Amino acid sequence: MKTRILTAVVAVPVVFCLLFFTPEWVTAIMMAIISLVCVIEVDHAFARYAKTNKKPPTFLLLPTLLVSVAIAFALGWSIYRLREVAFGQYLVLLPFLSAFITDGGAYFVGVSIGKHRPFPKISPKKSIEGFIGGIVIGTLAVVGYTLLLSTIIPGTLGGIDVGEYYTFNYGNAVIVGMCGAIATEAGDLLFSWIKRKLGIKDYGNLIPGHGGMLDRFDSMVLCAPIVMLANKAFPIFLVWIA
Asked: pLDDT tens digits, residue range 118-136?
């Protein structure tokens, strides 16, 4: 646990700075690298399963391809789409915030009061209490983030007063936060199921205390595109041109 926390303390500020303070192309390169590593990890996991169980490579070709495309779409294209829109440097943090805080909230609530465990064969440590707690905490995190943005975003951009041209919708923040939290829980459960099917504990050992890159970003495979689509349908930022 100490290694896990220490890694997060070091990695989170680095990822935040790369997402927020750098141009869009840096975000694109970073997410392309993360996506590529995740795809390699899952491809190796499927390949090891096929070899161990003496299955022909073609047996797992389709599921491997589907999972790889989903990862590339979610961690590559979805994140970049959030980054390139108006106020993208703020919006791009939403799926990271939603996924990581929902994960953390579900874990700590589950450890504290979790008693009912509906998926013992897929993820024996997951509980109904943790699931609900993660959704509540993840939703509140997005609403709190929206409130924080309303106090720190400057009223001028490029010397032009834009304060009267945008506002925040907290009702939409609740919707986006809830959609992201539910998608996070579903994504985590999905990739836990895949690991059980493949007979592995982690997808890799790249990140100390966390396992592979995909073990850290698995919950974002569903969270990122859902947050992107939810924010498009129910935008947290309401921006208009006078």
From this structure: 777 777 677 788 889 999 9
